[in-house]
Amino acid sequence: MGVAALALTAGAAGTAYAEDVEVLHWWTSGGEASALNVLKEDLEGQGIGWQDMPVAGGGGTQAMTVLRARVTSGNPPTAVQMLGFDIQDWANEGALADLNAQAGEEGWDEVVPAALQKFSKSDGKWVAAPVNVHSTNWVWANKQLLDELGIAEPQNWDEFVVALEKVKAAGKTPLAHGGQPWQDATLFDAVAMATGGPEFYEKAFIELDPEALGSDTMKEIFDRMAVLRSYVDENFSGRDWNLATAMVINGDAAFQMMGDWAKGEFLNADQAPGEDFLCFRFPGTQDQVTFNADQFAMFAQGSEVGPEQAALASAIMSPAFQSAFNVVKGSVPARTDVSDEAFDACGKKGMADLKAAAASGNLYGSMAHGHANPAAVKNAMYDVITAHFNGEYDSDTAVDELVTSVEIAQ
Ligand code: BGC
Predict the structure, then answer these.
(1) What is the atom index within ligand 1 of the atom nearest the CA of 292?
(2) Mind listing the pLDDT tens digit for each residue in 223-242?
(3) CATH code for the part of the protein at 9-133+293-350
(4) FRET label pair with 158: which of 105, 203, 296, 341, CA 20 to 30 Å apart?
(5) Whose CA is nearest to atom 5 of ligand 1?
(6) If we measure between CA atoms, which residue out of 285, 249, 282, 283 comes closest to residue 264?
(7) Residues 41-53: pLDDT tens digits?
(8) What pTM value is reported for the model?
(9) Which residues line ligand 1 (CB under 6 A)?
């Protein structure tokens, strides 16, 4: 029996598709894999065969390299997890299937927030289906350790430093961190928002204004990164983000600054928010949300979107799926019409914060996660941030390098 025939007989719910979907993604940690299973099972229930194409590496840097190689060799995967500007880059290359007809039938325009549609659409046409909204400016904390040390949730930078110092004095790791460029940039993103505020963030990272990039505020942000560097353990280099989360879960470390995919790890370890771990906004960014959204773009396999690709997109956009998936993933739905009922306290806060930030003009695409500027600029920023974090540049040099490398990357 051929592969197609096998797929046709495999459908559990009676609907079967001639082709499997091959899904390229970077959801390989424990929490991410649990969330991915929600999607896999949903599709398998509809008789859609799943070929898994995982590419490990948080933030998707490696996945994007593999994708480029696959497309170059004329063998693109069916569907690809993708962030913000990467979607736009691939759409501009004409590589993505047009999902417009289906989006129209299913009313995506009415339910997906404008901030996401900006990335899901190219030339007014839908080219990607958003599965979630993550926000990146969170801190995750070990509750027991904080209680033991008498540390309350820090409200601003100074209180955060006092808390970090207390943890250090107690012989624990204050800040769990993995020294990988995207993680350094995730930290930087929050420090930048806390230090410069939303207008500065917009000028520096979205408008790429050379004055903002070269400002005293930017120097202060790098100075604060150096302060945070002093609270990271000596084995941080190259550590994966989920292993840093495990340090908080185990009580070896007090805090991790990370997007809300970290919550997936706590849940996967049977931890409960408010009891075992705490989630709060990075001190000084309580009113802001820096976001990224995972979307699935379908690579054009012919002139029209394949039936299994359309089925995958429909499954992703279904309100029930958006609830079930995001409860496990740590993110919040990419549709505004999904109830927060099934979500835990951190998820409910995530949904409320997102709504409030969108209404008050405090919602910004995350630089670290491909939603502020295109990959070339983002990668240039990563290089400077990491070189500074590793002590290769002092803050003044980092500011100069940032201005120059962003100019070259544009
Ligand atoms: C993605 C998340 C993912 C995280 C860590 C982010 O860029 O949006 O879905 O869990 O990277 O891999």
Answers:
(1) 8
(2) 999 999 999 999 999 999 99
(3) 3.40.190.10
(4) 203
(5) 58
(6) 249
(7) 999 998 999 999 9
(8) 0.95
(9) 26, 32, 58-60, 83, 134, 241, 261, 292, 294, 369
